[in-house]
Amino acid sequence: MGSINGSDAFAPRYIAQSYNHADSHASALRLILTLNPHWEGPENKVEFVRFTDGITNTLFKAINRKSGLTEEEIDKDAVLMRAYGNHTEILIDRERETNSHALLARFGLAPPLLARFKNGLLYRFIRGRPATHEDLVTESVWRGVARRLGQWHAVLPISAASPMPKSGKGTSLLDSVEVAADGLPVKTDDLKVIQPRRPGPSLWAVLQKWILALPTTTEAQKQRRRSLQTELERVVREFDNGEGLGEDGLVFAHCDLLSANVIILPSEGRPEDEKEVNFIDYEYATPSPAAFDIANHFAEWGGFDCDYNMMPTRSVRRGFLTEYVRSYAERRGIPQSLQPEIVDQLCEDVDRFRGLPGLYWGIWALIQAQISQIDFDYASYAETRLGEYYAWRAETDGMEGKEKPLRERRWAEA
To answer: In the UniProt record, which is one GO cellular component term (predicted)?
Structure first.
């Protein structure tokens, strides 16, 4: 199979072309026909189905509706084309995304990666339907998510996603952040850049890069960035401790398990209450504490509207984590007798991590508010998500005389 740590042997084909938003159909067709030259000719009928069109990416499904083919046969040869949005390199390491996809495909956890092009990827289509946030709270679905996430965390080597620097020392986090969201060169000002325990990519390194990329045009923006850096320093002191599942407290995590990235597969003979799912979109995948990936997924149960009434209660979280640990332990050879203790610890860890997704997506949304061109109020979303983080801080710091916010109340329910 080749070296787990070396990505060269698994590098996908490169097509030296670009997708052009202004010339969408023609540029997409050129890419698809370069990949599949046998789709050219009068007997072929190439069509595109647009799934998403946003700042982070544009996603097409390319199909060849040749006469005589069934829908299943058409889907079997279908190709997904993901084109990156403008300026998203500020938020997303595209090289790492490609490597993550190739790694996942080798373990059967992602569709085969067919090719890269100048501003995107081409990969095989998988049948199924994207979940809704209402699906996520349905037991048959959340059990499927728990099983698949346990498999991810158990089998994927973080060394492939997080190669040690050749020097053996940590590389500067500034190396891959050239401009901030306001288009100006990144300045550290008086920020003390954090150094995570483990060199290379990680949740902590991503958060640091994002804070460094925040705009600093006004004094208020500079103050906001300093404040968030202080929070990051505190979070890293408290949470980057090498404890938890995986290697040095880190697993290969998805870090963006919102409903649309959970694909519910066709039942195909399975009982209706045993859903099987796959995960898509690996833009944010990176080594992370398992408890963060799980807490981050639970945060998505409320959808983009942040409906905190949908948050999982303690008993539901324990059910999810029991299913997750069963899947994880099966693949790591952990005896059944030890699993209840792992579930107990994970319940505590996920509870501790519940505020961190708010910090993560709050910082992300502050950057999106500067670079995004789609019709979404990222500035308000940033305040909502950061509000979750600060409400969690107030709760864990022993808030006196104030009513718990809804999210905290729901989380505490049995």
So the answer is: cytoplasm
